[in-house]
Amino acid sequence: MRPEDLQLLTTPGTVAVTGDLVLVSITTPDLEANTYRGGLHRVFPDGTTTPWTHGDRDNAQRISPDGRLVAFLRVSGKSKPQLFVVPVDGGEPRKLTDLPLGAGAPVWSPDSSRIAFVARVPEHGRYGTTDDGPESEAPRRITRLDYRVDDVGFLSDRRPRLHVVDLDGEVSELTDGSHDVSDPAWIDDSTLVFVAPRDLGVVETLHCDLYEVPLAGGEVSLRVRGAGEISMPFVAGSSLYWLGTEFTGIDAVARNQGLWKAPLDGSAEPVRLTDVETVDVERLSGQPVADAEGVLLVVRNRGALELQRIPFDGGPGEVLAGAEAAVRSFATDGSTLVAVVSTPDSPGQVEFVGTGVRTSFASVPSARRVVEITGSASDGYPVHGWLVLPDGDGPHPVVLAVHGGPFMYHSWGFFDEAQVYATAGYAVVLPNPRGSAGYGQAHGQAVIGKFGSVDVDDVLSLLDVALARPDCDADRVGVMGGSYGGFMTSWLSAHHGERFKAAWSERAVNAWDSFSGSSDIGYFFADAYCGTDPEAQRAMSPLTYAEKINLPFAVVHSEQDWRCPLEQAQRMFVALKRRGVEAEMLIFPGEGHELTRSGQPRHRRQRFDAVLEWWGRYLKS
């Protein structure tokens, strides 16, 4: 895959099924228009496909329980997503909403007569509700720590509210905007539940609970008090299920997501159905659903994202799809089970689970080979990851690429970055050190209070496994990463710089003291991972050791990153330049923390070009 091949990267997204109708959303970057395009495609049981809608970008499709209509979100040009419905047998989609900040994903009522969704409602005079520009808006009065979030913006002047729309397009609001709302689900045709912060967010909290509200409107009441975080509730039979974690205070980091259950009649306390240490549910793969035998969900497991069926009363899950692959989404109508499965050589195929039928979409040309590698750290702890190899025998220059998080992972799924670098001639090492997700909760929590210790040992140990191969050149090694991976790049450059020719540190955390006040999550994240002692935070900050960095160093950041704000890059860049280090800073205008995954296509292309120019300068000679 070359940088210009981004426009060929066709990626399946959400999937829906009823009977023989299987619909999948498709997304493709458009470099010329600098946007993303894609409609809904129909997938037939023999694996063939045909376009089903023709909007600029259609996604989040949901088929009504009676099987008659499809609701979906449509983005036209640069407008906000709005809800549309269309009959399953075709026809012109009909628009149901016209909201200034757009609508959220649709959730059908059991009787198929209404759709619930969440939408942010702006204060009058803000966000385009008048003809005046942002410079004419009144100042924002900030009284809370949780006042903004990356890729969304300021929060208190556009709180999300629970809405319901009928099929005639009549929209009603069920909450008043005094608190956050997410993840609605129908208890029955007259009652909804939703997720909201503990005590409806009276004060800042990382805990959330389940609340209910009548369809007719009225008082919001507590339904389930959570043990930590709650998300994605749904009803199956006589029980209410949801995903959740367990923690106290701010100790929410590196916690496995589990499946929980409570009877609808409130006759028993909630119980966790999955093991807290070994089972971590991947919410990014979509809403869990029930079939006749259990609850279907996706579990993180050593880089695989496995579609599993969990028994209704709990216990070990049955793996249905995703072995040495990554299930990105799934759906069932009770008889047909379909999943979007990404593999090392494919961004995604629609699989009819249990039949062996997979359909793929036109995408990037031949992917480079991905090899699983394992080893041991100096303390004997097992290390695991992958090596993506260029064509030819080598020895190839090597790029060590550390993932973000840290409670995330490299996976068996298609990774466009590694494919671009391997196509350009670099062997790419992808480690999942302690701190990563998918290897047990203890593995994820092993770096709490210990950044720059066991995680570094694991990363370098796996790098040594790769460098012991004859096709990898131990004398030409670079290090790169974003977010936590950027932190690790800065840290490795300071403490093990002799091992690398150059570094590419992107959207990094470099100093926990300023991160605490500038990041959208800084008010709790730094204390949760590093502790509250300023000296301990200083000791775990790469900026503290900037005087030890002497190798060529690229500081890369997005101008509107609120997760790891721009000041984190600026402080490192200035510290290095003042010492005469060969340092450069690359800033992407208008982008947030998610540039490499969902940023403007042109910026993603330009970033790839810059990365390859950098490595060509220092690793190819």
TrEMBL record:
Keywords: Hydrolase, Protease, Serine protease. It comes from the Bacteria. It comes from Lentzea rhizosphaerae. This is Alpha/beta fold hydrolase. Pfam families: PD40 (PF07676), Peptidase_S9 (PF00326). GO terms for molecular function: hydrolase activity. PANTHER family: DIPEPTIDYL PEPTIDASE FAMILY MEMBER 6, SERINE PEPTIDASE S9 FAMILY MEMBER. Residues 412-620 form the Peptidase S9 prolyl oligopeptidase catalytic domain. The keyword RNA-binding does not apply. The lineage of its organism: Bacteria, Bacillati, Actinomycetota, Actinomycetes, Pseudonocardiales. The keyword Cytoplasm does not apply. InterPro entries: 6-blade_b-propeller_TolB-like, AB_hydrolase_fold, Peptidase_S9_cat, WD40.
